[in-house]
Amino acid sequence: xxxxxxxxxxxxxxxxxxxxxxxxxxxxxxxxxxxxxxxxxxxxxxxxxxxxxxxxxxxxxxxxxxxxxxxxxxxxxxxxxxxxxxxxxxxxxxxxxxxxxxxxxxxxxxxxxxxxxxxxxxxxxxxxxxxxxxxxxxxxxxxxxxxxxxxxxxxxxxxxxxxxxxxxxxxxxxxxxxxxxxxxxxxxxxxxxxxxxxxxxxxxxxxxxxxxxxxxxxxxxxxxxxxxxxxxxxxxxxxxxxxxxxxxxxxxxxxxxxxxxxxxxxxxxxxxxxxxxxxxxxxxxxxxxxxxxxxxxxxxxxxxxxxxxxxxxxxxxxxxxxxxxxxxxxxxxxxxxxxxxxxxxxxxxxxxxxxxxxxxxxxxxxxxxxxxxxxxxxxxxxxxxxxxxxxxxxxxxxxxxxxxxxx
Length: 407
What we know:
- The structure is a single chain.
- The chain has 407 residues and is of the alpha/beta class.
- It has one domain (4-317): Alkaline Phosphatase, subunit A (3-Layer(aba) Sandwich).
- It contains 11 helices and 14 strands.
- The chain has helices spanning 29-37, 55-58, 79-85, 110-125, 148-151, 166-170, 191-221, 255-258, 285-292, 306-309, 376-392, and strands at 4-11, 39-45, 90-93, 131-136, 184-185, 228-236, 245-246, 259-260, 262-265, 275-280, 320-326, 329-335, 339-346, 357-360.
- A hairpin with a 3-residue loop joins strand 12 and strand 13.
- Helix 4 packs parallel to helix 7.
- The N and C termini lie far apart (44 Å).
């Protein structure tokens, strides 16, 4: 099966700021177009959002904070190795600061640079029948450098002092962009800070959307639009003041951090407009791409999403699990269509203990009211399942999924 694939992965993309996921005030016409021409996954959840280990390259979970277990089995082959073994050209375009710790160069539009790098990669590939280009976008976490044209969409243009009349001068000054907020605690009662943060990030998302639009135009110019399987997703979300934190300050696996966008446009825009409600995760990308290339699937923890893309299946898993570590702090989570269960495994040094959290889904979308005390037995059952799941990911042989308890 001949297949050309372009995967675009963003870090720190907050799903709540995208029009195709319900946002009504931020301009994302490119992503809206992609959603209309492709398939939107509504329940895509991170599996290891705070780690440099890419589960989407191996199709296997990698939970932090677990001692023991059987690690005697060989490390799984990565996506690039599997494609190389079958002679399929592949190009990985990494975010330059991802592994090296490099500081972001000032005054350079990294999103524009990334888009240009894709164009050069396509030039180098030439015209083989099959290829994969994987683009890791620069992180969307602060500090931000956003072109002024995007900031102006969400912030009033300042009026020169000489043009202000006395009454205007006494009014509340207009909001200003907040380009360098510090990662850490954020006062949820500071409405001005909250609004500045939201509006600045809105400009970041609109800028991202515009660069993706230019990338789509590049595919059109090359006549590739109807030939390419295009996947746009994120490896993690971004806390923007929800639950009192900004950025990767704590591994709190709330909705804002682990609920991710996943948009896939198939060649020829097949299945355009479909929305998928099944629980999916980043580690499903490896088996999905191998399946799209018509290659044999190795033993993985993930599942091919092609049956979901074509409406031939309703689910690939009954629940989704995630694990994250920031510093010494570790948290795990289990997500079903009806519940979100968060389990702190190890707190950060000096932090007060964080208890388990349980939220009703989809009613409590942003997880405001934990109901653990009202459902103690159910929470204990979910914790037992989650712990058993994490242990199972470390065992050799076929992955044995612990069953979900009955309510």
